[in-house]
Amino acid sequence: MSDSGPNRVEQAILGALLMDNRRYPVIEQIITPDHFASRPHRKLYEMIAQCIENGRLADPVTLWRELTSTGILDEYGGPKYMAELIKALPACTPS
């Protein structure tokens, strides 16, 4: 996986959503799936959005099955991919 600036920004956005679904209403007003340059990131954003919009929790555990069945995890290196999304979050987040 690339550590390029845009890729890290995409990872941080996805990680933030996975850690706190309450951020989605604000993020969805600014960011659409088309804003993601990475196809796997775009697909993951769509899956997160669908879960949240349907009233389901979107976190690494609940998305695991769908992520593995679509091949997104394999495409980016398996479980390490999910860990990278979480690591991309800023060190300081409001509580």
UniProtKB/TrEMBL annotation:
Q: Name one GO biological process term.
A: DNA replication, synthesis of primer
Q: Where is the DNA helicase DnaB-like N-terminal domain?
A: 8-90
Protein name in UniProt: DNA helicase DnaB-like N-terminal domain-containing protein
Write out the GO MF terms. Answer: ATP binding; DNA binding; DNA helicase activity
Q: Which domain of life is it from?
A: Bacteria
Please tell me whether the keyword Ribonucleoprotein is annotated for this protein: no
Please provide the record's keywords in A-Z order: DNA replication, DNA-binding, Primosome
UniProt xrefs under SUPFAM superfamilies? N-terminal domain of DnaB helicase
What does the entry list under GO cellular component? cytosol; primosome complex
- What organism is the protein native to? Acetobacter fabarum
The answer to whether keyword DNA-binding applies is: yes
Q: Which residues form the signal peptide?
A: none
